[in-house]
């Protein structure tokens, strides 16, 4: 069987190089050996694969069919050998990553220098885009995406899960009051994203553990990125359905507060995505494992602050936005206000934890 596979690989190399001479040079074999191996392959298959003339080689119909199947085998063997070689030498080479714009700027960006210091042989090509790119066509090694994975040709590794809640600024509540039931939302201004539109109606999917439904809202601003809506939220322009990743620091400092605290949107998953059947290279594996590690440390930092659905406070004053943002940016250490020595304590309302990270 090994002899048969070698003959097949020699045939593929002849087709790719366009001549026996060039193939022999690439393989480091005598030209006569290469020619003989192809003849033996044709004899074993009982079909002529190559049309030989004094000027060029061409594929027969049988040769074309055989080559189309065998070139994939040859490529996978090369990738397998390359993967083993990379394992010997460690992660290296260019790593092309695509990530939603805000996630790249707010959360991932600060981590890239740390990843590079840990893996100096890896060079990063970061593509910030809110579009769903073609991983193969755009030569993407790994994509970070929110939501479910409808494309069965891709594989996802879960990095964390987040539940969105409804937030408002104190200035908005002072002017417009606070919704007391989900049905009240249709009488309030809302800052929404395109996927909140269902036909001609804008609504938020919400549940309280016992009941769920789509509740109408009145959009005042639409954006395809939650961080683009955040300034309007802080300015009191409307209510916003968002994850704690977006507003964690402002929630801790009192710049925003939760409304309808018993209600929340469906869990949103953050996944690392790559093509199914591809050889998971050491650089991709190292990057995904690094993100998982940082997500776990981020969760630890949040819990050290006592932050779930809570408003964190120091013994002498509130935890600052900067402190919470450091934790939300996956900071590995306990976060403490400058000059503060007191430990954080929490005031916990009867609601679910704001961050529900689940790593595999």
Automatic annotation (TrEMBL):
GO terms for biological process: DNA-templated transcription. CDD domains: PBP2_CrgA_like. GO terms for molecular function: DNA-binding transcription factor activity; sequence-specific DNA binding. InterPro entries: LysR-type_TF_proteobact-type, LysR_HTH_N, LysR_subst-bd, WH-like_DNA-bd_sf, WH_DNA-bd_sf. Residues 1-60 form the HTH lysR-type domain. Residues 332-360 are annotated as: Disordered. Keywords: DNA-binding, Transcription, Transcription regulation. Belongs to the LysR transcriptional regulatory family. This is LysR family transcriptional regulator. It comes from Arenimonas fontis.
